Amino acid sequence: MKQAYQYKLLPNTEQKKQIDRWLELLRHQYNYLLGDRFAWWQENRNDVVLPQGEFCQIACTLLPTELRNNPDYYSQSASLPALKQERPWYKEIYSQVLQDAVKRVQLAFERFLKGDYKGKRSGKPRFKNKNRYRTFTYPQAKDNWIHGNKIKFPKLGLIKFIQHRCFNDGCALKTASITKKADGYYVTFVVEDNSIPDFEPDLTATKDNSIAIDCGLEKLYVDDKGARVLPQKFFRKAEEKLAKLQRKLAEEKRGKKAKRLIRQKIAVVHQKIARQRRQWHFEEAKKLCLKADVIFVEDLQIANLRRKNKPKKEDGKFVANGQSAKSGLNKSFSDCGIAQFLEILQHQAQKFGNKIVKINPRKTSQVCYNCLNSVPKTLCDRWHNCPHCQVSLDRDECSAKLIKKVGLGIASLKNA
Predict the structure, then answer these.
(1) What's the pLDDT band for 48 if we cut at 50, 70, 90?
(2) What strands, in cross-sheet order, belong to the sheet with 184-193?
(3) Rounded distance, CA 100 to CA 135, Å?
(4) Which of 182, 217, 337, 383 is the most exposed, fewest CB within 10 Å of its CB?
């Protein structure tokens, strides 16, 4: 299993300048290669199969007399030696780091045209501005690069880092990525940990070795035994501080340098919020993995839950569609981070040898877990009162108990 370890770098002034220069040069090269692919699309429009929803323009340029081949990873990598001859300053960059920029362009186009390993396509690749290109990667890092509390990067030299934890025994270093963040520079090592298997363990779920959780906004999750974890609302707690900084930024009398410093402070606050939320998710996921061997969760599509409301028209005029209230709900979804929690839970389960079983969420909140009769509820109804079997309990706990029954095969919601 591959794992990532991130440490804070402590480069000196010259090393900071060199890292910033590399990022700027790599950004220009990325945009150039991206533009080269777009130019091929323009010149060879008839041979391009666009994704669904994309259309060719009516006005097309004349095709050249000799059509060139479609630029791919190999052809664009082969152009790097000529680039170093034309622009000698690119020789400052480590060759494999320069090749990785070509790989990023290739990956962006593959996700746009074919989709990722789940089949989900990304949008059209965009040109990177200065704030959107912050990472470069050494694709073949070596274990002997690390010397105590220093890392020897090719063409960057020895850089100190804060080693707050060590790799597990038997880990092999694969890649190293340097990232510029709001509060400094970081290095992320990807290691191959042979002690953790890549395959899912073959576990048989029973009532004793399994647990089911129902995730939501009022509670991060409630398990089938009634235990609940309340959301921490890190973003809501920092909203007042962010609003004060945003008001300062909006003042027209401030100069460019002052506004740049305020933007830096805003970025640091957002970074702290993200770190607090992520740490909290890891802690709660670990607690769940220590409780049971098999964990039943709903297969939620958070992107669909956060989708904007469709516009409403009456008599040819737009009317209120509830988007104002939905915006606050979407903010709570982002603040709670349910999708991130489920992703971290999957990672922690693999690390601890647990098994995650995803259950179809259809009608899990509208059916009584005890008698399996339909009990319709709206989002405002937070308590489950069954008129058939007189069961009364929290609706999230009821859903968790029902999810466990469905996961164990005791109940089915297909005909519910």
Answers:
(1) very low
(2) 135-138, 171-181, 184-193, 2-10, 157-162, 150-153, 146-147
(3) 11
(4) 383
Ramachandran assignment for 337, one of left (phi > 0), alpha (psi -120 to 50 degrees), beta (any other): left
261 and 286 fall within a common domain: yes
Q: What is the pLDDT at residue 278?
A: 96
As beta bridge partners, residue 153 has 157
Q: Is 139 exposed, middle or buried (0-12, 13-18, 19+ CB in 10 A)?
A: middle
Instruction: Determine the Cα–Cα distance for residues 224 and 370; give it in Å rounded to an integer.
Output: 13
220 and 142 within one domain: no
Q: Would you state the structure tokens that stand for residue 66, as one six-digit string?
A: 């000799």
Domain end marker among 193, 220, 250: 193
Same domain, 232 and 186: no
Distance CA 402, CA 409 (A): 11
Distance of alpha carbon 101 from alpha carbon 96, whole angstroms: 9
Mean pLDDT for 159-179 is 91
Q: Which candidate, 31, 42, 85, 88, places its Cα nearest to that of 67?
A: 42
Query: Each residue of 238-252: pLDDT tens digit?
Result: 999 999 999 999 988
Cα separation, 14 vs 134, in Å, equals 18
